[in-house]
Structures are given as C-alpha cells and as structure tokens.
User: Fold this.
Amino acid sequence: MGIDLGTSSVKVIVIDEYGKILAQASEKYPILTPSPSWAEQDPDRWWSATRNAIRKALQSPNLERAEIKAIGFSGQMHGAVFLDSSLKPLRPAIIWADARSSPQCEEIRRKLGEERIIEILSNPIMPGFMAPSLLWVKENEPSIYERIYKVILPKDYIRFKLTGSLATDFSDASATLLFDVRRRCWSEEAISELGFREDFFPELRESAEVVGELSREVAEELSLNKGVEVVTGGGDSPVSAVGCGLIEAGMVSVNIGSAGQVFAVLKEFKMDPKLRIHTFCHAAPDTWYMQGAILSAGITLDWLIEKLGLKSPLEQMSLNPYDKLVEEASRVRKGSEGLIFLPYLLGERSPHMDPDARGAFIGLSLTHGRAHLVRAVMEGVAFALRDSLEILKELGIAVSEITIRGGGGRIKLWRQIIADVFNCRVKTAAVEEAAFGAAILAGIGAKVYRGFEDAIRRTVRMGESCEPSPGREVYDGLYEVYRSLYPALRDQLHSLASIQKRQG
Assistant:
C-alpha cells in the first residue's frame, strides 16, 4: 500500500508485486488561509482523510485485506508539523505554499551568510520551508514555540499515527533548510545558528527502510493485520520519480501537479552556485537530484476555470468539465495569438526566488476569448518550467527526452506544449502517481524486491510518447519575450503585492 499525502488530497494505492493496481481511493481536505499569504492545514484532518481513503481502497473486490504486506509513504514537502510532549499538534501545520516568513528568510541569510548557505544547505532560502516557518513561530507565537517537543514533516505525521514511531527520511529532511545536503545529515551549524534545539528533529532513515509496524489499535480500526511493516517513505517529488523509474543519473522529468518541477537525477552531488534551483536527496540511497520548482502549475488552470467562472452552467454539470475547454484551447494556434501568461499566483521559486512575484496576462486584446486564456495558461506554465530546464543545461545536464508526470501530464495538449516548448521527446509512465512510488518503496522494504532496480524492472511500465510538432519554433521567440517580462515588471509586481498585503 502506498499513501501520498498531497496538498489537496490524500491518495491510497494498493499494487501487486508486478505493479498492477488492485485498489485506489482518495479523500480531499482544504488549505486554510486565515491571513493573506498564509497556507495551513490541520494535521488531524489529514489523519481523518487518510483513514477514510484507506477504508475506501480496502473495499475493492480485487483485494483481500490480509494480503497487505507493507505500507509506504509520499508527501508534500517542506511543511512543518509542531508537536507537544504528548505528540499532539500545537497549531495547524504550515505548508509549502505559505509565504508569511519572508522576514525570517532574510534573517537566515544574514545569520548564515551566502558562503555557508551554499556550503551547508546548498539551496536558496525561501518561505514555506520548515526552517523559516519554525523561526516565524519562534518569533511570533512564543507560547507555542516553548511547548514544541518535535517538528516533523507532513507525511511523517501520518506514519506516526499508524505506528506510534517518529522518524523522517533523507529526501524529505533535505528540503527543510536545516539539512546538510552534501553530507546527508542534519546541520548542527544551521540548527544552532537559528537558535533551535537539535532534539526538535527526528532521526533519519532511508526511504525504503522499515521503521515500525502498524499498531494494534489502528489495525483493528481499519481491519488490517497487526504487524504490517511500515517504511519511512519520502517527499512526493522523489517518490513519484521512483514510480516512474527515474533513479539513474541523467534521467529528467517534468511534473505538472498543483506546483511544477523539473527533476534531474544525480549520482554525485552537484548544485547551482547561483541558487536558482534546488539540490535534494533522492529516495534512492546515495543519490541526489536537482530540481527547479514553480509554485503554480496545475493550480493555475484550476484557478482560471473555477475562480473566473469560465465554465457555462451546463459544463459545470459535466463529469470532467475541463475536457471541453482544453479541446477548445487545442484549436488555438501555438502562442495563443500573442498572449502570454506569467504563472506567479503564489510568488515564484525557480529561477527568481521571489515570494512577491505576481501573475499576469500580457498582450490581451479583443480577439482573445476563453480558449486563448486556457492555452496561454498552459503555455505560461511550460515557459516557467523551461527556465529550470535551461539552468540544467547550463550546469552540464544533457536533455534529449523527459518523462512527464502529475495531473497536468495526463492532458494530451499540455504534453504536446511541453514537447514543443522544451524541443524534446516527452514520455509518459503508465502510472505516475506518487502513491504508486510509495507502494514500490513498501515492497522494497518488505523484501518483495531485491532493491530499487529490481522493483522498477518488475513494476514500472511506460505509456505513450510525443515528439515536437511542426511549427514549434514559434515558442522559441515567445519564450524570449516571456523571459524578458519578469525583469521588466518586477518592481511593479512587488508594488501590487504590497497593496495586496496592506488591504488583506
């Protein structure tokens, strides 16, 4: 069984030893925004949703509950869950999309200095990561901070509720800004300089390592066998990569989930000295990956269609209301007739590392309709992701083909736009859910497989691929226009962000 604790829902998948999906289910939960730029979630709502999703999955007629041998995990990265001495949450978790801690990011830069940030953390300092979020709580909620016993990552809370044991893995810990990514350990220097206690943070385990067993109470509640082995799991991006077979050096993927990433596997540590993209530990042992991340990918299409009311009443009743709009967008010419979208709805990470960036449509005219807006959003996300691809190339990583994953990757038009904007072959995995990768980790931990290579050989199947299409060259010119827009508008976007904060 694989459990993926995502940003908007938890997903559960059960597979057999050959990767066939026997059961799957999901359960949604909200993002809480009690103040502008805040993003929080209730850990106990996660747990309730997880139990419901497991129950739903276990109702599959293809499955006997006694057949579950092990459970693995994937989860949204960077967030912070604050536990008291009774191991109960002290407040809502602060998740990756939160932007309140910009002042704390400046404080971290000042205390550590650029040279030590590069040497130790090997990553840019951005809001939404555990370190600045924890520092924000320390400075703004001292009564809560004083009661903190442990600070853990989101998926680790679910594993704790299943087993009663606290731990984390190298991949998730490496994305906290409290971790020495090069040496694969908690950074005593960073933790000390920021005034945190070292015992705040859980012990480290490999992603496929068994860290406990399903507790008797939970096993009885869910009608599972007591003693089911539970492995550590990992962050959603590397675990999803495992589920697509991406563990060898040089393999590259693009993810279009709520956020978006360009992901490249490394067998030796490497980082961007300009800190435009991230370097984290992979879920596979002794492996790293470089990742460019954008904060708004698939969520931009959700925003456009749902928040701006682009669906007609009849379309809103459709089982898949996006299909018609995407089909309309596919009839619009490449480049959306001169319309460009900046997908900075939550600020931006790679390459700008700017929480105060804001989104924009550029080039609107009376000739543009809703189909142009939809296509421009999809193209804008592709341009934003290409920023990270160009950095990987600059750092010596050759890219001739990529594997696409995430919900956006299941949209044929979006896959073709990525192939055209990136000018390379785009492949799909037959299953690209992070929960699938989490289930593979469970199988490795339970010794169903001899290791990562054996597990991938037996479970991962590739789907269709697409090549760049005729006329794709128009995107090269539009990409250059896209690249010029953020520097030209940066000050104005910051002014608008300041107004939003004041009015909020």
Summary: The chain is about 40% helix and 20% strand. The chain has a mean pLDDT of 94.
